[in-house]
Queue: 3 jobs
Job 1
Amino acid sequence: MALDDPNAQPSEPPGPPDRPVIHDAAPLEGDEALTCGRLLSQVWEQAQDATPTADPHTMSCPQCLEAVEGLATLNAATRALRAKDPPGLQALVDRVMRIVRAEVRLGRLLPLADAMLDLRIAESAAAKVLRHAADTVPGTRAVTCRLVPAGGTDVEVTMTLAAALDRPLPGRVDQVRRSVIDAAGQALGLAVTAVDIVVVDVLEPPAPLGLAGSGRIAGGGV
């Protein structure tokens, strides 16, 4: 019967299985917010996690899913280029990554109402205009604004709002809705078919116009 070799080294434990391509990507620099409010770096880190926890938002949010899909595709192409190692590759990769991060910040492209011209606008740019339209209504301030294609050239808007309670809330919300629809059609050329508004915070009532400036009520007599 053969004896075991006392100088033999114990066998190495099996290494972890190979991870998908996106798992060994370098983390993104900076924390850039998607239009849904999540940080791009946070979403990308969750996609690289070997044992991800269930997150209902990232599993169902189209913004997060689109960002992960785009970055994963780009990462696979980058790895293929790095394998060839041509001169100046890293500078090219850096430029491509900057462009991709800029496109992620812009959000999805939304169709304008004129289908014949096939014109589009970035969601982030349109949301900025619609938030400003909501802010023009006294006693209101837009918190978030999301735009989603609703088929064809139609677009639906979801907005969260902070509002004062010195006037009936339904009337003030309707005024914001009309302001948003008017701005979407006249300033942007978007065919907004629905504006869903949720009030999430309370503001102090705006000061009466007569108390502005000198602090005296306008029109007072001696």
Job 2
Amino acid sequence: MNRFLKNNEENPEQDEEPQLKVDKKVKNPENGKTFFKKLLTEGVVTKEAATEMLPFLLFISFLCMLYIANSHMAVKNIRDIDKLSKEVKELSWEYKSLKADLMFKSKLTEVAKKVDTLGIKVLTEPPKKIIVSYDEY
């Protein structure tokens, strides 16, 4: 058998352990509820608190709408800038090609080919200088 049990039967005085004194706090009925029970029974926000916070919530929602509208406007402006920069590049290329065509068509040989159908010929001798004195005028 258990020898501790035998010792315990022989000495009943040693059997008793000293009692610890513990102050038991009186429990408040609200302290007894856990957070989750409060959350499920009372809800997160009471009606009174919600009505007090209503102007602030409306202000926050207005700021959120402004933020969203501002981001949409910024994206639209970026798209417009990209579109206009592409258009500027196209117009620049068109300008350069038209300028090159004009330079080619303004050469003496090209002009001579165009006016030959009108009966105008290219000069073979240099032009003569006309001098007018002040007396003649």
Job 3
Amino acid sequence: MVYFGGLLGLIGLLTLIFRDGDVAGMPAALAGGVLLVLGVAVGVFGVVRRRRVRRRKIARGEPVPVGDIFQRARALPKLLREVRQGTYADLPRSRPFIWVLALVYLISPIDILPDLLPVIGVTDDAGVAVWLLTSVSTATGLYLNRQRERQRLPGRDLGSGGATR
């Protein structure tokens, strides 16, 4: 929801800045303002919801994603390598294939909803992009969490990343 809110806000901001004509029968300033306010509201709601869900998962002892966006991006090739080799079983082997299908859909000119339709035309692409970003981010965050748990276990070989005393 945070990504979707940011995307809505960005579309609203770009509409305010660059659009001169009407959007779906409304003045561009009104449409852009509504999208901007809606995007901020959805983004704030998403942040609040994410924090509540995280607290609830921690209270139940469930694993939660860790790491910032850069750590997760660096972990993605390692995650894909381990999934391909079969050494990381927490992610279904079909998930990377679905990610590739989502990328192909985003890149391809063929859409379920044509981009020529104002606002509505980009929603299918936006939905796929938001799902893809969220899915990849969550999977790599859980992978980082699992890696940190492995390093904390006593008697476990830490490999080249750490030294034992």
